[in-house]
Design goal:
The complex is a heterodimer of chains A (about 240) and B (about 200).
Chain A (H helix, E strand, L loop, with lengths): L14 H6 L5 H13 L1 H16 L11 H23 L6 H8 L3 H22 L5 E4 L1 E2 L7 E7 L2 E7 L8 E8 L6 E7 L7 E5 L8 E8 L12 E4 L3
Antiparallel strand pairs in A: 1-3, 2-9, 3-4, 4-7, 5-6, 5-8, 8-9
Chain B lengths: L1 H15 L3 H9 L3 H23 L2 H17 L11 H19 L2 H17 L1 H11 L3 H9 L2 H11 L5 H8 L3 H24 L3
Helix pairs in contact in B: 2-3, 3-4, 3-5, 4-5, 7-8, 8-11, 9-11, 10-11
Classes of the chains: A alpha+beta (about 240), B mainly alpha (about 200).
């Protein structure tokens, strides 16, 4: 017999619909969940109605998600994947490179990050006696003509901003490299894409100590360990 | 270089042939390419749901972004026994969107929700046209609009408006028991439609 058609309804049965709709107050929902363990009739009702609620999201007018949204999500995901894979292969990976993964992107994470940055900044100010910002302009290659790139270094952090860059190409992403001298290019976890206008920005995970030049190349999505193309941007650091 | 590109395109083609559940196993192993295919498949539905709930495009983008990053970071927690990847993902979007609404305060929620409500109540033709043009599951959408308006209203306020049954009762000046009863009747009617629809083999 279908428990929904029973003549002897559990008094809590009327809560099931509100429960699957997420419409019970928090404490009621907690009590109802406990009740479900001991009441087969309510469990059956929830099992009947849950698939209906699962279909409700598909009843809304269909909007196309903006491409820029997908690009932003993928940029973060690819850089996190690169870090995780690097961390898996290299035992000497500094622990902080995986620790930012858990809080990246969440508002709390940003707050924690900002707080941490403030602490680091304070330490640096004490250590160096200066919190001043340095700005470096990039040289743009012929294939990205019209683009511009700016690297800002402050408080031991560096941030790269680009504008009017061409798209990195289908299935490709821009990767930031650090060079300690001619012929040297260390990969970074900084992978980024650009908006339809060619704007983009990324943190460069380095204090740039001992770095002579910051470069950007277009690489297959996921990034490369060695540059596979000529740099589109070269930013000499005359420190 | 050309070889690398071809390999990447081949990988993508292979991944696109996999079921969502298989992709999620790869996502649990931090496979960003597999995640990209999941994102391709469900980002429109996720964004649409977030937009329907919060009513603002920028906010909907933030909600969808957080939800997908959460799918990526907690992919290992996906359990296929508890439903499809789509249901799981849209469930995360729904929770985040409703949390955002609830944090934004009752007044604003009421405003957004009332606007949505006015639109569905005053312009059924337009809603119907949108349904025909845009919905992937037209028949089910039709079922919602065919519910008696007092049943549809409590379901919409609860699910898309993020209101609790006591809030809905006071907004509609209706006893709590009546609100719960309408939710139950409306959902059971939709359940019957869903069963007919499945039985029709579509």
């Amino acid at each position: 017999m279908n428990p929904l058609d029973s003549d002897f309804d559990c008094p809590q049965l009327s809560d099931a619909a509100a429960y699957v709709l997420g419409s019970l107050e928090d404490d009621e929902a907690t009590r109802f969940r406990e009740h479900l363990r001991s009441c087969a009739q309510c469990r059956a009702e929830v099992a009947e109605l849950q698939p209906v609620v699962d279909e409700l999201p598909l009843k809304v007018a269909r909007e196309d998600a903006p491409d820029a949204l997908r690009e932003r999500i993928l940029t973060t995901v690819r850089s996190e994947a690169a870090v995780l894979h690097a961390a898996g292969h290299e035992a000497d990976e500094p622990p902080r490179r995986s620790s930012w993964r858990s809080w990246l992107g969440s508002p709390i994470g940003v707050a924690v990050g900002v707080a941490a940055a403030v602490v680091i900044a304070l330490v640096l100010v004490i250590a160096t006696g200066s919190g001043g910002e340095k700005v470096f302009r990039g040289h743009i290659s012929a294939s990205a003509i019209g683009a511009s790139a700016t690297l800002r270094q402050h408080d031991g952090r560096a941030e790269l901003t680009v504008s009017r860059m061409p798209q990195p190409g289908l299935g490709r992403i821009y990767e930031v490299w650090l060079s300690r001298g001619p012929g040297n290019a260390q990969p970074t976890t900084a992978l980024f894409s650009v908006t339809s206008k060619g704007d983009g920005e990324t943190d460069v995970p380095s204090d740039l100590h001992g770095i002579r030049e910051v470069m950007v190349t277009s690489e297959p999505a996921g990034g490369s360990l060695r540059p596979t193309r000529k740099p589109l941007i070269q930013i000499p650091l005359n420190s | 270089m050309a070889r690398l590109r071809r390999e990447s395109a081949d990988t993508k083609d292979k991944l696109r042939k996999l079921a969502d559940e298989e992709l999620m196993e790869l996502v649990a192993g931090n496979d960003a390419d597999a995640f990209e295919v999941v994102l391709e498949r469900h980002s429109d539905a996720a964004f649409s749901l977030a937009y329907r709930i919060c009513g603002r495009r920028a906010l909907a983008e933030d909600i969808a972004q957080e939800a997908f990053l959460s799918v990526w970071r907690s992919g290992a927690r996906y359990d296929r026994a508890r439903g499809s990847v789509r249901t799981w993902t849209l469930g995360i979007v729904h929770n985040r969107a409703v949390d955002t609404l609830r944090r934004s305060g009752t007044h604003e929620r009421r405003l957004i929700s009332d606007e949505g409500l006015a639109e569905t109540l005053e312009a059924p033709e337009r809603t119907e046209v949108q349904a025909v043009e845009k919905a992937t599951s037209r028949e089910i959408q039709g079922a919602l609009s065919e519910l008696p308006s007092e049943q549809r209203r409590v379901i919409e306020l609860a699910y898309f408006g993020g209101f609790t049954h006591t809030e809905i009762a006071s907004m509609l000046d209706t006893p709590v028991g009546t609100v719960k009863g309408r939710m139950r009747l409306g959902l059971r009617k939709l359940r019957d439609e869903l069963k007919d629809w499945e039985a029709a083999g579509r």
